[in-house]
TrEMBL record:
GO molecular function: ligase activity
Organism of provenance: Kitasatospora atroaurantiaca
Protein name (Swiss-Prot/TrEMBL): Phenylacetate-CoA ligase
InterPro entries: ANL_N_sf
Alphabetical keyword list: Ligase
Organism superkingdom: Bacteria
């Protein structure tokens, strides 16, 4: 499918998607510029994007592949791609793998996760299959036993290993414990979460000849976001043009940032997707331009819409809903998600504000924790596997919650991890 002119795409979604029809109801009929459109409200977007009585899709669900992203078990987030859209998505991403360092003949182990409607394993395998360079694909998956994975890498003298940083580090730790290293590995491709400096020494001990690179920047809901940019900073990516339009918006004005080095939140428009349109969709990340003319930007961490703790994604609204459900008496007057990193692992601190009366707070904290674990079981599983620290619930007075110094508004997500 060719890239659609923006004006044509706007007309199409206004005519065929009930959600966008309502969202754009107050706009002039001939609206033709992205900046004239509102940023998609995430909560309403997902409320409209349901398996039954879907109000977001532009047509009936008759031919598509369906994936699920980081919602809770009670509020999963589904993404839909037509056959042609998925092929174009993976083909474009596969071209970006060459930027990451993929070379003809490379033997590549796919250690991403499959099943339960997760996309990453299938996505990377298809991207490798559609890459412009020949390669040998080993679809191992992230759930395979570490020793079995290690043996396969050794048997095939694998040169490229692709997975989340958590998976790569777990594999490295397993190999280190048995006194082994894999000098044949030339390239480690990570995705799904950021790679921190404290993880690299471990990887270097086991993969002494491997260069570390982002596999690329994409999301199953938002689609294509950025190609890897060779260099020492693995956070820098380049926009997939002309397939997508990436904007970085000012936190206070909502206007697109056109200067380098100014942080803002990332929104994306996909000019090819029509079944599940994505126009000015907030990705949930913050970034800054490093070269505006070249379309290069640096990812700075999560924005307000969501947070990623190790391999676990959490939507802010889901957490707010869980706290509200656990607190029918309304004692919690404010919620703040704080992500920190210590001893080589991420950890989530759920900061809850109350009226100062300590009675019953430990029980309420336990109820909140149990509710989050039940709704997002991947979190306690990651804790049990040693990937992240256990959830911590702390109580504060409302004035102790961090606010924006300029506007006084509550900051829902504080990412205090080192991103340098």
């Amino acid at each position: 499918m060719p890239v659609q002119p923006i004006a044509e795409l706007i007309r199409f979604v206004r005519r065929n998607s009930p959600f966008y029809t309502e969202l754009y109801a107050g706009l002039p009929d001939r609206t033709a510029k992205l900046t004239d459109l509102p940023v998609v409200p995430q909560t309403e977007f997902w409320q409209a994007n349901t398996p039954r009585d879907n109000r977001l899709l532009t047509g009936p669900l008759e031919e598509a592949v369906v994936f699920k992203s980081g919602g809770t078990t009670g509020s999963p987030k589904f993404s839909f791609y037509s056959r042609e859209e998925w092929r174009e998505f993976t083909t474009s991403f596969g071209a970006g793998l060459v930027d990451a360092g993929l070379r003809p003949g490379h033997r590549v182990a796919d250690l991403f996760y499959a099943g339960d409607l997760y996309a990453s394993y299938t996505f990377i395998l298809d991207a490798l299959n559609h890459s412009p360079v020949a390669n040998v694909r080993l679809p191992i998956g992230g759930a395979a036993p570490l020793e079995s994975t290690a043996q396969t890498l050794e048997q095939f003298e694998v040169e490229v290993v692709a997975g989340t940083p958590t998976t790569l580090c777990a594999l490295a730790d397993h190999l280190l414990a048995s006194g082994r290293e894999l000098p044949c590995v030339e390239l480690l491709l990570f995705g799904g979460e950021g790679l921190f400096q404290d993880q690299q020494p471990l990887l270097g001990k086991v993969f002494p000849n491997a260069r570390v690179s982002s596999i690329g920047y994409a999301a199953v809901d938002a689609g294509l976001l950025g190609r890897p940019v060779p260099g020492p900073d693995t956070r820098v990516h380049r926009v997939f043009a002309p397939e997508t339009v990436v904007e970085i918006l000012d936190d206070h004005t909502g206007e697109p940032i056109t200067r380098e080095g100014v942080p803002g939140r990332v929104v994306v428009t996909d000019l090819r997707r029509r079944l599940m349109p994505v126009l000015r969709y907030p990705v949930g990340d913050r970034a800054e331009w490093t070269d505006v003319a070249a379309g290069q930007f640096r990812i700075l961490g999560r924005a307000q819409e969501g947070v990623r703790v190790g391999p676990v994604s959490l939507y802010t609204q889901d957490v707010l809903d869980l706290v509200r459900a656990a607190d029918p008496a309304g004692r919690v007057t404010g919620v703040q998600l704080v992500v920190r990193r210590w001893r080589g692992r991420d950890g989530l601190v759920l900061r809850l504000a109350c009226d100062g009366n300590p009675a019953g707070l430990p029980e309420l904290a336990a109820t909140v924790e149990a509710g989050l674990h039940a709704a997002r079981p991947l979190y306690p599983e990651a804790v049990a596997a040693g990937y992240v620290h256990p959830l911590t619930v702390t109580w504060v007075r409302h004035h102790e919650l961090a606010v924006n110094a300029r506007t006084g508004k509550l900051i829902r997500v504080l990412d205090e991890r080192p991103h340098a």
